[in-house]
Design a protein that fits this description.
single chain; 111 residues; mainly alpha; two-stranded antiparallel ribbon; 3 helices; 64% helix
């Protein structure tokens, strides 16, 4: 009978986690979450920069194609590039200026 009581007491002590163990796990999860947030923020910034560079390069290639098709007598506009089928839509981040120069707009995300 004595051994049965000792076994029951031993089983009761082994169940569950202590408060210290739970706090350690919560702190570790908090640290991992913080590291992840900062890593994702850097990736987002890098993605925005890459998207801006790709947008600018697309407009530059479209301007070159415009000059190849129409000669240098007329300068392209973004509306003209869309009409010619060289780009899909007018870019909110870049403008095509005089002489076919591509510049960032003041309100665009790439300025």
């Amino acid at each position: 009978m004595e051994t049965h009581i000792e076994e029951v007491q031993a089983e009761k002590q082994d169940k569950g986690f202590t408060l210290v163990e739970l706090l350690i796990v919560i702190v570790i999860l908090g640290i991992l979450a913080t590291v992840t947030v900062f890593a994702v923020r850097g990736i987002t910034d890098q993605g925005q920069a890459s998207a801006c560079a790709a947008d600018q390069k697309t407009l530059e290639v479209a301007v070159e194609a415009w000059y190849a098709q129409n000669g240098t007598t007329t300068d392209p506009t973004e509306a003209g590039l869309v009409t010619a089928g060289l780009i899909r839509a007018v870019s909110p981040t870049y403008d095509v200026g005089a002489g076919g120069t591509v510049t960032a707009t003041a309100l665009g995300a790439c300025a």
